[in-house]
Design goal:
By secondary structure, this protein is α/β, with parallel strands linked by helices. The chain has two domains: about 10-145, 3-Layer(aba) Sandwich (Rossmann fold); about 180-410 and about 430-475, Dihydrodipicolinate Reductase, domain 2. Helices cover about 35% and strands about 20% of the residues. The chain contains 15 helices and 15 strands. It has helices spanning about 20-35, 55-70, 80-85, 100-105, 125-135, 155-165, 185-195, 225, 230-250, 260-270, 295, 400, 410-420, 430-450, 465-475; strands spanning about 10-15, 45-50, 90, 115-120, 145, 175, 205-215, 280-285, 310-315, 325-330, 335-345, 360-370, 370-380, 390-395, 455-460. The strands form two sheets. Strands 14-13-12-11-7-10-9-8-15 form a nine-stranded mixed beta sheet, sandwiched between helices. The chain has a six-stranded parallel beta sheet with strand order 3-2-1-4-5-6, sandwiched between helices. It is globular and about 80 Å long.
């Protein structure tokens, strides 16, 4: 199976914050890989913009170093790299002043697709947006890409939306969430809406519960000051996990169209019930394995910020009423693993005398590592001695199914940046969607802050706090094991 590469239109992409960590690790290497794949035409250009005083040659040298560091050796090609670097130029710019804007206007072409990537702090979004329009750089069809965090509560998200809306229409704003660019995440929609096998069963009549897990082995060292102001709820649940929940729970859109998809996601968020205090478990990792604990990493001995959170949610609509959704995410856990598990109900009646080996049917969608899908079904255990049941997987690993073609599948940033150039907003959050997510999140955070609750300590290399296990046990269910 070979993947098709369809070139995008000629474009000028300006990356604000081009010397920063995100640009070096993800954006610029991703653009190089799309150039290597033949998706970017020779007439396209990438313009770096940052405060540092660099020549074009110095910027190109720094990009070459980033590609050497972050692109796998097998995909590094000297001739392709030279061609990509030729597309690059640089402008030293002051995001909040006048320096550099005239020079930027002189190099950005008005007759090609214009895209402006705000790889900067959210506090600079409004200033950059205003100067792009005030200096006549951004045309009426220009697109801007803004990174998370998009606010830290409903009020700040509304303020950011309003600041951008002063200068750009909603159809021009691309709020990026790299989780939505993952191949398996997009396959959620294909699995649901392209297979009659699943859609009739995708409701509370047949689904017992849904688990969404995003587990990480790393702590917050190196970004502790930022993380301590956010926590797992703001950093992961409000955006990444919320998007996964929406794709699992949404109704079929009338068409695979950006606004049609986002309309249905918005309905899910608005149908979320408030979370009861007893349905929330928060934790902080302790020191262990030669590494400090959360309090040391955050440099705040009195921190009440969670590095782990587990929640039980309900969606009040006809499709999902009565089916619980269990979400969990945390740092310094047993393994790096992201998956969605849809557990189906037991058959209403068993015809087999020996029911001891019975297990529910489970559809597991693995996001990382080993992207793929796994459907667990019951069969007869081989051999004589009666009808003994055993659960086996019908497994589809992307690596096995796609073979060498998997090497050509773009990562999340590659895909999403190309979608910006195409003008496809399907995998980007809309302003009202962001605000609805914060409107649901704020009372949850406000509740535990008002109660003065401290996160529970947990040992690194485990599955999290003990109370998270009880969150499931009291419902006679169990978390799926986080595999080490």
């Amino acid at each position: 199976m070979a993947s098709r590469v369809i070139p995008v239109e000629v474009f000028d992409l300006v990356i604000f914050g081009a010397t920063g960590d995100l640009a070096r690790r993800k954006i610029l290497p991703g653009l190089y890989l799309r150039w290597l794949a033949g998706q970017i035409l020779p007439e396209a250009r990438v313009i770096g913009a940052a405060r540092a005083e660099l020549s074009d040659a110095e910027f190109r040298a720094s990009v070459a170093a980033a590609i050497a560091e972050y692109v796998p050796p097998a995909r590094q090609d000297a001739a392709a790299l030279a061609g990509f670097l030729d597309r690059l130029s640089y402008v030293a710019i002051d995001a909040t002043g006048d320096k550099g804007w005239a020079q930027l206007r002189a190099v950005v072409r008005p007759d090609v697709v214009q895209a402006f990537y705000f790889s900067v702090a959210p506090t600079l979004f409004g200033a950059i947006a205003g100067r792009l329009t005030a200096h006549g750089i951004a045309g009426p069809e220009a697109r801007i890409v803004v990174e998370k965090p998009f606010g830290r509560d409903l009020a700040s998200a509304r303020a950011l939306n309003a600041a951008l809306a002063q200068h750009f229409a909603e159809s021009q704003i691309y709020r990026i969430d790299h989780y939505l660019g993952k191949e398996t995440v997009q396959n959620l929609m294909a699995v649901r809406f392209a297979n009659i096998l699943f859609e009739p069963l995708w409701n509370s009549q047949y689904v017992d519960h849904v688990q969404i897990t995003v587990a990480e082995t790393v702590g917050v060292e190196g970004r502790g000051v930022y993380y301590d102001k956010a926590g797992a709820m703001r950093d992961m649940v409000q955006n990444h996990i919320m998007q996964l929940l929406c794709l699992i729970a949404m109704e079929p859109p009338y068409h695979f169209d950006p606004d049609a998809v986002r309309d249905e996601k918005l309905k899910v968020i608005r149908a979320l019930d408030p979370v009861r205090p007893e349905d929330i478990v928060r934790g902080q990792y302790l020191a262990g394995g030669g590494k400090g604990g959360y309090l040391e990493d955050a440099d705040n001995r009195n921190s009440r910020t969670e590095s782990y959170i587990a929640l039980k949610l309900h969606i009040s609509n006809w499709r999902w009423k009565g089916t619980p959704f269990y979400l969990r995410t945390g740092k310094r856990l047993r393994a790096r693993e992201s998956e969605i598990a849809i557990t189906f109900r037991e058959p209403p009646h068993s015809i087999f005398d020996d029911h001891s080996g019975w297990r529910e049917n489970v559809l597991v969608i693995r996001l990382q590592p080993d992207e793929g899908m796994n459907l667990k079904v019951m069969i007869k255990e081989p051999g004589p001695g009666g009808m003994r049941l055993v659960q086996v997987p019908l497994d589809m690993s992307f690596a096995e199914a796609l073979g060498e073609a998997l090497d050509d599948v773009p990562d999340a940033y590659e895909r999403l940046i190309m979608d910006v150039i195409r003008g496809n907003q399907t995998l980007f959050m809309r302003g009202d969607e962001v605000e609805a997510a914060w409107a649901w999140t704020d009372p949850v955070i406000g509740g535990w802050e008002a109660r003065g609750e401290k996160p529970q300590p947990y040992e690194p290399g485990t599955s999290g706090p003990e109370d998270a296990l009880m969150l499931m046990h009291r419902d006679n269910r169990r978390w799926r094991e986080i595999r080490s």
